[in-house]
Amino acid sequence: MSRVFVVHQPTGRDRLTGAIKPTMDLSPAREFGELRFILREWENPFSDIAATVAEVQRVLRGEGFDERDFLLLVGNPVLIGIVAAEAAYLTYGSLRMLQWNRSEHCYQAVSAQLGDVDAGAAAA
To answer: The whole model's pTM is what?
Structure first.
């Protein structure tokens, strides 16, 4: 079964209670597989970018991310770029992503072949 790797759960502060809560319902993506969150919702790429890259690598490599899995690219654009780059590295440039279709109210699969990405070191 495929898995859906989500950059992180976007959150915001509730105006009434001040509590931090999810700002997006990602549950429709479960149609494509189990949701796996890569980073904590409060991850800040500006505090320590090297640590952020290392965490993305640890999660994707540790979970065995491969070409059967999907990416759900939501949140901070820097984090999205890091996740997509590492995923492409691990799959020789073959990515499967989910895109929200507003008119149908569902996610749709989108595939892209990014060319020759050298994943030789990924096996190491």
So the answer is: 0.86
